[in-house]
DNA sequence: AGCCAGTATTGACGTATGTCGAACCAGGAC
DNA sequence: GTCCTGGTTCGACATACGTCAATACTGGCT
Protein backbone atom coordinates (compact mmCIF):
# COMPACT_ATOMS: atom_id res chain seq x y z
CA UNK A 1 0.00 0.00 0.00
CA UNK A 2 1.33 3.42 -0.89
CA UNK A 3 0.90 6.62 1.02
CA UNK A 4 -1.84 7.51 -1.41
CA UNK A 5 -4.06 5.61 0.96
CA UNK A 6 -3.37 8.26 3.57
CA UNK A 7 -5.90 10.99 4.04
CA UNK A 8 -5.09 14.68 3.85
CA UNK A 9 -5.14 14.87 7.65
CA UNK A 10 -3.85 18.34 8.35
CA UNK A 11 -3.86 17.44 12.01
CA UNK A 12 -3.91 13.68 12.15
CA UNK A 13 -6.77 11.20 12.36
CA UNK A 14 -10.29 12.35 13.03
CA UNK A 15 -11.73 11.37 16.37
CA UNK A 16 -14.12 8.94 14.67
CA UNK A 17 -11.45 7.10 12.69
CA UNK A 18 -9.26 7.00 15.76
CA UNK A 19 -12.04 5.43 17.79
CA UNK A 20 -12.64 2.81 15.13
CA UNK A 21 -8.98 1.94 14.67
CA UNK A 22 -8.21 1.94 18.36
CA UNK A 23 -10.66 -0.89 18.99
CA UNK A 24 -8.68 -3.05 16.57
CA UNK A 25 -5.39 -2.17 18.20
CA UNK A 26 -6.84 -2.72 21.64
CA UNK A 27 -7.90 -6.20 20.60
CA UNK A 28 -4.25 -7.02 19.93
CA UNK A 29 -3.10 -5.27 23.08
CA UNK A 30 -3.11 -8.51 25.03
CA UNK A 31 -0.44 -11.20 24.67
CA UNK A 32 -2.97 -14.02 24.70
CA UNK A 33 -5.03 -12.52 21.90
CA UNK A 34 -1.92 -11.75 19.89
CA UNK A 35 -0.82 -15.36 20.15
CA UNK A 36 -4.31 -16.56 19.30
CA UNK A 37 -4.38 -14.45 16.16
CA UNK A 38 -0.91 -15.62 15.24
CA UNK A 39 -1.88 -19.25 15.69
CA UNK A 40 -5.02 -18.80 13.63
CA UNK A 41 -3.17 -17.01 10.87
CA UNK A 42 -0.31 -19.47 10.69
CA UNK A 43 -2.58 -22.23 9.52
CA UNK A 44 -2.27 -22.47 5.73
CA UNK A 45 -5.77 -23.87 5.60
CA UNK A 46 -6.81 -20.73 7.42
CA UNK A 47 -8.96 -22.46 9.97
CA UNK A 48 -8.25 -23.61 13.50
CA UNK A 49 -10.51 -25.46 15.88
CA UNK A 50 -10.88 -23.99 19.35
CA UNK A 51 -9.88 -27.37 20.73
CA UNK A 52 -6.43 -26.82 19.24
CA UNK A 53 -6.07 -23.31 20.61
CA UNK A 54 -7.09 -23.87 24.19
CA UNK A 55 -4.41 -26.36 25.30
CA UNK A 56 -1.65 -23.98 24.14
CA UNK A 57 -2.32 -21.74 27.14
CA UNK A 58 -2.32 -22.08 30.89
CA UNK A 59 -5.75 -20.53 31.00
CA UNK A 60 -9.23 -21.86 31.48
CA UNK A 61 -11.28 -22.66 28.44
CA UNK A 62 -13.85 -19.91 29.17
CA UNK A 63 -11.05 -17.38 29.22
CA UNK A 64 -9.86 -18.43 25.77
CA UNK A 65 -13.42 -18.28 24.54
CA UNK A 66 -13.70 -14.75 25.91
CA UNK A 67 -10.55 -13.63 24.10
CA UNK A 68 -11.76 -15.19 20.86
CA UNK A 69 -15.00 -13.29 21.26
CA UNK A 70 -13.11 -10.01 21.57
CA UNK A 71 -11.06 -10.81 18.47
CA UNK A 72 -14.28 -11.56 16.62
CA UNK A 73 -15.95 -8.33 17.79
CA UNK A 74 -12.93 -6.37 16.62
CA UNK A 75 -13.37 -7.88 13.16
CA UNK A 76 -10.05 -9.68 13.27
CA UNK A 77 -11.41 -13.20 13.01
CA UNK A 78 -14.58 -15.00 12.03
CA UNK A 79 -16.00 -18.20 13.44
CA UNK A 80 -18.04 -21.04 12.08
CA UNK A 81 -19.54 -24.05 13.79
CA UNK A 82 -19.25 -27.39 12.00
CA UNK A 83 -20.74 -30.22 13.96
CA UNK A 84 -19.37 -30.29 17.44
CA UNK A 85 -16.41 -28.04 16.76
CA UNK A 86 -16.06 -24.31 16.18
CA UNK A 87 -13.45 -23.09 13.72
CA UNK A 88 -11.87 -19.65 13.69
CA UNK A 89 -10.51 -17.98 10.60
CA UNK A 90 -8.53 -14.79 9.98
CA UNK A 91 -10.21 -11.72 8.47
CA UNK A 92 -7.31 -10.35 6.46
CA UNK A 93 -9.11 -7.12 5.58
CA UNK A 94 -8.88 -5.99 9.17
CA UNK A 95 -5.21 -6.72 9.70
CA UNK A 96 -4.57 -5.07 6.34
CA UNK A 97 -6.35 -1.92 7.53
CA UNK A 98 -4.21 -1.79 10.63
CA UNK A 99 -1.03 -2.29 8.62
CA UNK A 100 -2.14 0.47 6.25
CA UNK A 101 -2.68 2.87 9.14
CA UNK A 102 0.79 2.16 10.47
CA UNK A 103 2.30 2.61 7.04
CA UNK A 104 0.63 6.00 6.80
CA UNK A 105 2.28 7.01 10.02
CA UNK A 106 5.68 5.99 8.76
CA UNK A 107 5.22 7.47 5.31
CA UNK A 108 4.28 10.81 6.74
CA UNK A 109 7.32 10.77 8.90
CA UNK A 110 9.32 10.58 5.66
CA UNK A 111 11.85 8.25 7.22
CA UNK A 112 10.56 5.27 5.34
CA UNK A 113 13.68 5.35 3.21
CA UNK B 1 8.76 -6.28 3.89
CA UNK B 2 8.40 -9.80 2.58
CA UNK B 3 7.26 -12.83 4.50
CA UNK B 4 10.90 -13.78 4.84
CA UNK B 5 10.79 -11.61 7.93
CA UNK B 6 8.39 -14.10 9.45
CA UNK B 7 9.77 -16.65 11.83
CA UNK B 8 9.27 -20.37 11.39
CA UNK B 9 6.56 -20.29 14.04
CA UNK B 10 5.08 -23.73 13.79
CA UNK B 11 2.49 -22.58 16.28
CA UNK B 12 2.52 -18.84 16.14
CA UNK B 13 4.38 -16.25 18.19
CA UNK B 14 6.31 -17.22 21.28
CA UNK B 15 4.91 -15.98 24.55
CA UNK B 16 7.84 -13.59 24.96
CA UNK B 17 7.47 -11.98 21.56
CA UNK B 18 3.74 -11.75 22.05
CA UNK B 19 4.21 -9.96 25.36
CA UNK B 20 6.62 -7.52 23.78
CA UNK B 21 4.45 -6.81 20.76
CA UNK B 22 1.24 -6.60 22.74
CA UNK B 23 2.53 -3.66 24.77
CA UNK B 24 2.97 -1.74 21.53
CA UNK B 25 -0.49 -2.61 20.32
CA UNK B 26 -1.96 -1.78 23.68
CA UNK B 27 -0.38 1.65 23.52
CA UNK B 28 -2.39 2.32 20.36
CA UNK B 29 -5.52 0.76 21.80
CA UNK B 30 -6.79 4.12 22.97
CA UNK B 31 -8.27 6.72 20.62
CA UNK B 32 -6.46 9.59 22.31
CA UNK B 33 -3.07 7.96 21.97
CA UNK B 34 -3.79 6.99 18.38
CA UNK B 35 -4.61 10.60 17.55
CA UNK B 36 -1.55 11.81 19.42
CA UNK B 37 0.69 9.50 17.43
CA UNK B 38 -1.00 10.52 14.23
CA UNK B 39 -0.53 14.19 15.02
CA UNK B 40 3.11 13.67 15.90
CA UNK B 41 3.76 11.65 12.76
CA UNK B 42 1.99 14.03 10.43
CA UNK B 43 4.53 16.76 11.10
CA UNK B 44 7.02 16.74 8.26
CA UNK B 45 9.59 18.20 10.62
CA UNK B 46 8.91 15.22 12.80
CA UNK B 47 8.60 17.16 16.01
CA UNK B 48 5.61 18.50 17.86
CA UNK B 49 5.54 20.56 21.00
CA UNK B 50 3.28 19.33 23.78
CA UNK B 51 1.72 22.78 23.84
CA UNK B 52 0.35 22.08 20.36
CA UNK B 53 -1.01 18.66 21.23
CA UNK B 54 -2.84 19.46 24.44
CA UNK B 55 -5.38 21.99 23.14
CA UNK B 56 -6.53 19.53 20.46
CA UNK B 57 -8.35 17.48 23.08
CA UNK B 58 -11.06 18.07 25.63
CA UNK B 59 -8.83 16.58 28.26
CA UNK B 60 -6.75 17.97 31.06
CA UNK B 61 -3.08 18.61 30.54
CA UNK B 62 -1.98 15.90 32.99
CA UNK B 63 -4.05 13.36 31.07
CA UNK B 64 -2.32 14.19 27.79
CA UNK B 65 1.02 14.03 29.56
CA UNK B 66 0.09 10.59 30.87
CA UNK B 67 -0.81 9.32 27.41
CA UNK B 68 2.42 10.68 25.97
CA UNK B 69 4.31 8.86 28.68
CA UNK B 70 2.67 5.59 27.71
CA UNK B 71 3.52 6.15 24.06
CA UNK B 72 7.10 6.81 25.08
CA UNK B 73 7.29 3.72 27.29
CA UNK B 74 5.99 1.63 24.40
CA UNK B 75 8.84 2.91 22.26
CA UNK B 76 6.53 4.64 19.82
CA UNK B 77 7.77 8.16 20.41
CA UNK B 78 10.76 9.92 21.91
CA UNK B 79 10.85 13.24 23.71
CA UNK B 80 13.35 16.00 24.07
CA UNK B 81 13.26 19.12 26.19
CA UNK B 82 14.45 22.34 24.58
CA UNK B 83 14.18 25.29 26.86
CA UNK B 84 10.73 25.53 28.32
CA UNK B 85 9.10 23.23 25.80
CA UNK B 86 9.15 19.49 25.30
CA UNK B 87 9.06 18.10 21.78
CA UNK B 88 7.85 14.64 20.82
CA UNK B 89 9.07 12.74 17.81
CA UNK B 90 8.03 9.49 16.15
CA UNK B 91 10.18 6.37 16.51
CA UNK B 92 9.57 4.82 13.09
CA UNK B 93 11.35 1.57 14.00
CA UNK B 94 8.55 0.70 16.37
CA UNK B 95 5.67 1.37 14.04
CA UNK B 96 7.60 -0.52 11.37
CA UNK B 97 7.88 -3.53 13.68
CA UNK B 98 4.15 -3.51 14.28
CA UNK B 99 3.43 -3.23 10.58
CA UNK B 100 5.82 -6.11 9.91
CA UNK B 101 4.05 -8.30 12.44
CA UNK B 102 0.71 -7.60 10.82
CA UNK B 103 2.13 -8.31 7.39
CA UNK B 104 3.38 -11.66 8.63
CA UNK B 105 -0.11 -12.51 9.74
CA UNK B 106 -1.52 -11.66 6.35
CA UNK B 107 1.24 -13.36 4.40
CA UNK B 108 0.79 -16.56 6.30
CA UNK B 109 -2.87 -16.49 5.59
CA UNK B 110 -1.97 -16.60 1.89
CA UNK B 111 -4.97 -14.50 1.01
CA UNK B 112 -2.86 -11.42 0.48
CA UNK B 113 -3.62 -11.64 -3.20
C1' DA C 1 16.38 36.21 44.27
C1' DG C 2 11.30 35.79 42.84
C1' DC C 3 7.78 34.96 39.53
C1' DC C 4 5.58 32.76 35.68
C1' DA C 5 4.52 29.50 31.78
C1' DG C 6 5.03 24.78 30.25
C1' DT C 7 5.31 19.67 31.78
C1' DA C 8 5.51 15.97 34.75
C1' DT C 9 4.19 13.47 38.87
C1' DT C 10 1.07 12.27 42.69
C1' DG C 11 -3.18 10.59 44.76
C1' DA C 12 -7.74 9.64 44.27
C1' DC C 13 -11.81 8.18 41.86
C1' DG C 14 -14.94 5.31 38.76
C1' DT C 15 -14.91 2.17 35.13
C1' DA C 16 -13.07 -1.42 32.19
C1' DT C 17 -10.48 -5.66 31.75
C1' DG C 18 -8.66 -10.48 32.56
C1' DT C 19 -9.56 -14.42 35.00
C1' DC C 20 -12.06 -18.13 37.14
C1' DG C 21 -15.78 -21.61 38.42
C1' DA C 22 -20.42 -22.74 37.59
C1' DA C 23 -24.12 -23.02 34.76
C1' DC C 24 -25.83 -23.35 30.20
C1' DC C 25 -26.25 -24.59 25.09
C1' DA C 26 -25.31 -27.71 20.67
C1' DG C 27 -24.54 -31.94 18.43
C1' DG C 28 -23.12 -36.63 18.11
C1' DA C 29 -23.30 -41.36 19.94
C1' DC C 30 -25.68 -44.65 22.35
C1' DG D 1 -34.84 -40.23 24.87
C1' DT D 2 -29.90 -40.02 28.01
C1' DC D 3 -25.32 -39.27 28.14
C1' DC D 4 -20.93 -36.99 26.99
C1' DT D 5 -17.80 -33.72 24.78
C1' DG D 6 -16.78 -29.15 22.92
C1' DG D 7 -18.01 -24.01 23.49
C1' DT D 8 -20.31 -20.16 25.11
C1' DT D 9 -22.40 -17.30 28.61
C1' DC D 10 -23.03 -15.73 33.43
C1' DG D 11 -21.52 -13.76 37.92
C1' DA D 12 -18.04 -12.61 40.77
C1' DC D 13 -13.57 -11.01 41.87
C1' DA D 14 -8.94 -8.49 41.71
C1' DT D 15 -6.33 -5.70 39.02
C1' DA D 16 -5.43 -2.29 35.45
C1' DC D 17 -6.78 1.85 33.08
C1' DG D 18 -8.37 6.72 31.99
C1' DT D 19 -9.37 10.83 34.08
C1' DC D 20 -9.07 14.73 37.15
C1' DA D 21 -7.42 18.35 40.64
C1' DA D 22 -3.58 19.42 43.22
C1' DT D 23 1.14 19.52 43.63
C1' DA D 24 5.94 19.57 42.16
C1' DC D 25 9.48 20.36 38.84
C1' DT D 26 12.09 23.05 34.97
C1' DG D 27 13.87 26.78 32.72
C1' DG D 28 13.48 31.54 31.11
C1' DC D 29 12.67 36.33 32.49
C1' DT D 30 12.95 40.38 35.32
Automatic annotation (TrEMBL), chains A, B:
Q: Which Gene3D superfamilies match?
A: Winged helix-like DNA-binding domain superfamily/Winged helix DNA-binding domain (1.10.10.10)
SMART domains per the UniProt record, alphabetical = HTH_ARSR (SM00418)
Location of the HTH arsR-type domain: 13-110
Provide the alphabetized UniProt keywords: DNA-binding, Transcription, Transcription regulation
Output the superkingdom of the source species. Answer: Bacteria
Matches recorded under Pfam families: HTH_5
User: Do you know which PANTHER family this protein is assigned to?
Assistant: ARSENICAL RESISTANCE OPERON REPRESSOR, TRANSCRIPTIONAL REGULATOR, ARSR FAMILY
Q: Which NCBIfam families match?
A: HTH_metalloreg
Record protein name field: Transcriptional regulator
Q: The organism's lineage?
A: Bacteria, Bacillati, Actinomycetota, Actinomycetes, Pseudonocardiales
Amino acid sequence: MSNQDCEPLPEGLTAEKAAELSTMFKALGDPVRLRLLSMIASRPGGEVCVCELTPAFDLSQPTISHHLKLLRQAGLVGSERRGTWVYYRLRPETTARMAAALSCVNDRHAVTA
